[in-house]
C-alpha cells in the first residue's frame, strides 16, 4: 500500500470522528516546548500535498485561543515552562493535549535535568501520548484519533 | 612562512607552550596578551575565528582554560590559542571589541562557567535566563546535572529605541506558525524596522552537560537530536571527532555512504527553505510544489535508511547499514526530483510577484557577514567563498567534483539561488558517490576510546558545524558543540534593518536558522 492510500483510509476515519464529535473540524495549536525541530518537520509535513490533513477537517491554527487541542513537542525546557503554561491557560475548555514525540512523552534522551523538565505531563495534563523520534505523520494522525476517542468517552461520562 | 611560524616570530617568548595533535596546533599563551594575539591572527593573518569555548580543568591543574579556534583552509589546519584562568580570579580580557563574532561565545562562557569577559560591550545573560540564580554555572564540573536551581526574580532589559512614532512589536516565544520558540523585539517607525533584538535560548536543553553524563555509544544519538533537520551532519561531525581521537581510518565504503547521506540531508533542507520562502510570500502554488518535492526526498530517505530524517545510520567507526543495494532506486528518484525541481525554479524565477518580494530584501553586506563570521549558504550568498567540504575535506569529498556556489548580492534572492544551485551540485555528488561506491566493510569495530581530544568539522546544510571533544576513561569529559546557527543568528538583526515588518518572515526563512541547534 502506498503512503497516499494509507493516508486516504486513515484520513476518512479521522474525518468521521471529527464530524461526530466536533461537528465540522478540529483546530490544533502546535507548541514547541524545546524540541530538536524534527517533530516540527513532521507536523509541517502534515500540511503538504501528500498528507494534506485540512481535507479531513484538521486545521493548524495560529493562536491557542482558536484551538481545541494543543500538540506539544519537546521535553519542556526550564526556559519554556512558563510559556507552555500560559499557552495552556489561553486555550479555551474543553481542550485536549497531545504530547508528540519521545521527549514530550517522558523527556526522551534529554531526560530530567537542570534545563529540561522531563516531559509535558510534568507541567500540564496530557490526554494522549504519541511516541516516536520523530513520529511519522501517520503516527500523528493515529494519535489524534485516539485523542478524539478519549474526548468522546469524557463527553459520555459528562466530565467536560 | 606558515601561520604558526609567523605567530611564533611575532610573539616569540610570549608563546608558553606549543603542542600539535593531528592537524590542530595548540598554543598556550598569557591571558593578558590574548586580545593582541587574536587581533593579529584575525586581522593580519586573515584567519576566521570559528569557535571559542572553555573547559573546566580544575581537577588537573586548578584552572579553567579558554580555547580560541582559528581555521586555516589553505593547509586544512587549525590554530588554537589557549589561556589559563584561575578560579580565584575568574576574569579575562574580552576580544569582542576587536572581533565581533566573539560576542555570543564570551557571553555563553560567562553563563556556563562563570568566567567574566572584561570589557565586553554587552555583558547581559545569554543562556541562563534572569530567573537563574547568580553564581550557579552548569558546565562547571562540580555542578550536578540533576540540580534544579530555584527561580529568582530578575528581568531582561531590552535595548530601547525612543522617539516620535516609534513603537515596539514583541513576537514569541510561541509563534503563529509551526516553528521553534524564540523572542523577537522589533522597534518600528511606520512599517520599516529600525531595530530588532533577538532573545533566544528558550530551547536550552543542557546538551553539552548531557554529553558528559551519558555513555559514548549513546552519545551519537544525542548528537543526532541537537538540531533535528541536521541530524546527519551532527552525527558525522561527532563521529569524526571521536574517530580522530581513536586514530581510526574508517572504510572507504562508509565514507561514501556518509557523503550520500549528508547530501540527501542538504537536498531536503534546501528544498524546504525554498518552500518556506514561497509560503511566506503567499505563493501557494510554488510552496505546494516545493513541499511535495521535499516529501519525495523524505520518503526516499525512509525507503533507503528506514528513517525519514536519516537517523540511526552513523556510528563511531563507520555506518550501521548498507545502502548500496538501493543504488538504482536512489538514482532514479533523484533524477525525477531534480527534473521537477528545475521546473519549479524556472517557474519561481518567472513569477514577478515572488521576485518582487525577494530581490533586494534582507540584504547582508559582505563586511557584516565577514565580521559576524556568517557561515554556510547564507555566507556564500554574501560573497564569502567558504565551504568545509573543500576547505577542511572530510568523508569522501576529496574524491569528487563539485562547485562551491557563491553570490555577491546578499539578499533573499541570492540565498534562494545559492540553495537551488547547491541542490543540483548535491545530486551530482550523490551520483558520483554511488557510481564509485567501493566494496568493503561498513565499519571498524571500536571497543574503547583512548584518552585524548580532537576537533570535528563538517559542512551541514546550514553551514560549518564544529565539535571539540575530550575523552577520559572511555567517557566524554567535555564536548563543545557549535551549530552554524550560533554564528548566523546575529546577522538577522542587520538583515532586517530598513525592511518592512511583513518581509521579516521571508528574511528569517531565507537565513534558515535552527533555534534548537543554537540554544542546545
TrEMBL record, chain A:
The keyword Repeat does not apply. Its cofactor is [4Fe-4S] cluster. The keyword 4Fe-4S applies. GO terms for molecular function: 4 iron, 4 sulfur cluster binding; metal ion binding; NADH dehydrogenase (ubiquinone) activity; quinone binding. Residues 36-145 form the NADH:ubiquinone oxidoreductase-like 20kDa subunit domain. It comes from the Archaea. Keywords: 4Fe-4S, Iron, Iron-sulfur, Metal-binding. NCBIfam families: PRK06411.1. Belongs to the complex I 20 kDa subunit family. PANTHER family: FORMATE HYDROGENLYASE SUBUNIT 7-RELATED (PTHR42989:SF1), HYDROGENASE-4 COMPONENT I (PTHR42989). This is Energy-conserving hydrogenase subunit echC. It comes from Candidatus Methanoperedens nitratireducens. The gene is echC.
Amino acid at each position: 500500500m502506498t503512503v497516499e492510500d494509507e493516508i486516504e483510509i486513515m484520513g476518512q476515519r479521522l474525518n468521521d470522528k471529527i464530524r461526530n464529535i466536533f461537528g465540522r473540524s478540529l483546530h490544533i495549536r502546535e507548541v514547541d516546548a524545546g524540541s530538536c525541530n524534527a517533530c516540527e518537520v513532521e507536523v509541517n509535513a502534515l500540511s503538504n500535498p501528500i498528507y494534506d490533513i485540512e481535507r479531513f477537517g484538521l486545521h493548524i491554527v495560529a493562536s491557542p485561543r482558536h484551538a481545541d487541542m494543543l500538540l506539544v513537542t519537546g521535553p519542556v525546557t526550564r526556559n519554556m515552562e512558563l510559556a507552555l503554561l500560559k499557552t495552556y491557560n489561553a486555550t479555551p475548555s474543553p481542550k485536549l493535549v497531545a504530547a508528540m514525540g519521545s521527549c514530550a512523552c517522558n523527556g526522551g534522551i534529554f531526560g530530567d535535568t537542570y534545563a529540561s523538565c522531563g516531559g509535558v505531563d510534568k507541567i500540564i495534563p496530557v490526554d494522549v501520548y504519541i511516541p516516536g523520534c520523530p513520529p511519522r505523520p501517520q503516527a500523528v494522525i493515529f494519535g489524534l484519533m485516539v485523542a478524539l476517542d478519549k474526548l468522546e468517552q469524557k463527553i459520555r461520562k459528562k466530565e467536560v | 612562512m606558515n601561520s604558526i611560524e609567523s605567530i611564533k616570530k611575532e610573539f616569540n617568548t610570549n608563546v608558553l607552550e606549543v603542542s600539535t595533535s593531528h592537524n590542530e596546533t595548540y598554543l598556550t599563551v598569557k591571558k593578558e596578551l590574548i586580545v593582541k594575539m587574536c587581533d593579529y591572527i584575525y586581522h593580519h593573518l586573515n584567519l576566521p575565528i570559528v569557535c571559542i569555548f572553555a573547559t573546566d580543568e580544575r581537577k588537573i591543574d586548578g584552572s579553567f582554560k579558554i580555547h580560541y579556534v582559528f581555521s586555516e583552509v589553505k593547509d586544512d589546519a587549525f590554530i588554537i590559542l589557549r589561556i589559563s584562568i584561575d578560579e580565584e580570579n575568574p576574569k579575562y580580557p574580552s576580544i569582542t571589541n576587536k572581533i565581533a563574532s566573539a560576542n555570543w561565545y564570551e557571553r555563553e562562557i560567562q553563563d556556563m562557567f562563570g568566567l567574566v569577559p572584561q570589557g565586553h560591550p554587552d555583558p547581559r545573560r545569554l543562556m541562563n535566563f534572569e530567573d537563574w540564580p547568580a553564581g550557579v554555572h552548569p558546565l562547571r564540573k562540580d555542578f550536578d546535572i540533576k540540580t534544579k536551581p530555584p527561580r529568582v526574580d530578575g528581568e531582561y532589559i531590552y535595548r530601547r529605541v525612543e522617539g516620535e512614532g516609534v513603537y515596539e512589536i514583541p513576537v514569541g516565544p510561541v509563534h503563529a506558525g509551526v516553528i521553534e520558540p524564540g523572542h523577537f523585539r522589533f522597534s518600528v517607525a511606520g512599517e520599516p524596522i529600525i531595530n530588532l533584538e533577538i532573545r533566544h535560548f528558550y530551547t536550552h536543553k543542557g546538551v553539552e552537560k548531557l554529553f558528559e553524563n551519558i555513555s559514548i555509544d549513546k552519545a551519537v544519538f544525542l548528537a543526532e537530536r541537537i538540531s533535528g533537520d541536521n541530524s546527519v551532519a551532527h552525527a558525522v561531525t561527532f563521529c569524526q571527532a571521536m574517530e580522530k581521537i581513536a586514530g581510526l581510518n574508517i572504510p572507504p565504503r562508509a565514507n561514501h555512504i556518509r557523503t550520500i547521506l549528508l547530501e540527501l540531508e542538504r537536498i531536503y533542507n534546501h528544498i524546504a527553505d525554498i518552500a518556506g520562502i514561497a509560503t511566506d510570500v503567499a505563493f501557494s502554488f510554488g510552496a505546494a510544489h516545493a513541499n511535495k518535492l521535499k516529501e519525495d526526498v523524505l520518503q526516499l530517505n525512509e525507503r533507503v535508511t528506514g528513517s525519514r530524517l536519516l537517523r540511526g545510520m552513523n556510528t563511531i567507526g563507520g555506518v550501521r547499514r548498507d545502502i548500496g543495494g538501493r543504488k538504482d532506486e536512489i538514482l532514479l528518484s533523484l533524477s525525477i526530483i531534480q527534473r521537477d525541481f528545475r521546473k519549479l525554479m524556472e517557474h519561481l524565477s518567472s513569477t514577478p510577484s515572488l521576485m518582487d518580494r525577494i530581490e533586494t530584501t534582507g540584504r547582508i553586506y559582505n563586511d557584516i557577514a565577514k565580521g559576524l563570521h556568517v557561515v554556510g549558504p547564507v555566507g556564500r550568498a554574501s560573497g564569502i567563498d567558504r565551504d568545509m567540504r573543500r576547505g577542511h575535506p572530510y568523508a569522501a569529498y576529496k574524491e569528487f567534483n563539485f562547485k562551491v556556489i557563491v553570490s555577491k548580492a546578499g539578499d533573499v534572492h541570492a540565498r534562494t539561488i545559492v540553495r537551488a544551485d547547491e541542490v543540483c551540485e548535491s545530486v551530482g555528488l550523490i551520483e558520483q558517490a554511488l557510481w564509485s561506491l567501493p566494496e568493503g566493510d561498513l565499519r571498524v569495530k571500536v571497543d574503547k576510546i583512548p584518552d585524548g581530544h580532537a576537533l570535528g568539522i563538517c559542512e551541514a546544510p546550514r553551514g560549518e558545524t564544529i565539535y571539540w571533544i575530550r575523552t577520559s576513561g572511555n567517557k566524554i569529559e567535555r564536548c563543545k558543540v557549535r551549530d552554524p546557527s550560533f554564528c548566523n543568528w546575529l546577522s538577522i538583526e542587520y538583515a532586517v534593518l530598513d525592511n518592512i515588518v511583513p518581509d521579516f518572515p521571508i528574511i528569517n526563512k531565507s537565513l534558515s536558522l535552527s533555534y534548537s541547534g543554537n540554544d542546545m
